[in-house]
Amino acid sequence: MTDSIVMTKYQGLGNDYLVLDAKKNKVQLQGKKIAVLCQRGFGLGADGILYGPVEINGKMGVRIFNSDGSESAISGNGVRIFAKYLMDQGYVHGNKFSIETEAGTMEVECLNARATEFRVKMGKASFISREIPVTGEIREVINEPFVFHGQEYKATCLTVGNPHCIIFTDQISREKVEKLGPYVENADEFPERINLQICRQIDKGNLEIEIWERGCGYTKASGTGSCAAAMAAYRLGMMERRINVNQPGGMIQIDIGKDDTIYMTGTVGYIADIRVAESFFS
Ligand SMILES: N[C@@H](CCC[C@H](N)C(=O)O)C(=O)O
Fold it and tell me: Which amino acid positions bind substrate, per UniProt (predicted)?
């Protein structure tokens, strides 16, 4: 058997990632190879790849790749998954530690003995166009009209380390977000593309979302998408500070601190260690 690489698969509410351990595997990750690895036909099937531990700003961190091979500065489910991986592999000790990402330092706390539930301090959101980014004059992008695929929508856009477009509507469905998602993701107004969540308010403590991810498409869950939808709804005066974000893969709890720091709590699960043919990396 040719030398092979071991990857470890985890999921966060059905948003599945492959962990490639950078300390155990001296392989080069290339965009096209990532895309083939993530394919659910010719590859292993995943919404993305977590590559680490690597050094970011002199500290232990993780790089995050979408299934199309593009790199994202942050992934909420990805950070919770990588936190579990670090504990499973004995890279960290204790239940509180931090993980560096390209979007900054994520402070993590493991909430149970089985290491399946994590709370992450995700930082603060920004609605400022230049920071998201959204084209046009510098402004906060709150409940602003956009035309996507020939139809006008009111959207609120923000960054939580990665860009999100939130559209509130009374009717959400997978079909609706799959139809609208590609047009929003790739709209000219979003120079770095964008994640889309269509969002329905259930009550002042509960939202429901359907997700179209930048660089990935339809997913069952999104941690940053949950943070973004909750923060947008809170900014519009719709919500209390504790918000349960319900999505096809389950529920992520968002707490908005008095200083508007966002805390995300959710579960993760180990799936398998997978021995991968080295040809994927050659
Ligand atoms: N599913 C992730 C989001 C991953 C990154 C996103 N696709 C992007 O490119 O910004 C999450 O849990 O946050």
Answer: 15, 66, 76-77, 162, 195, 213-214, 223-224
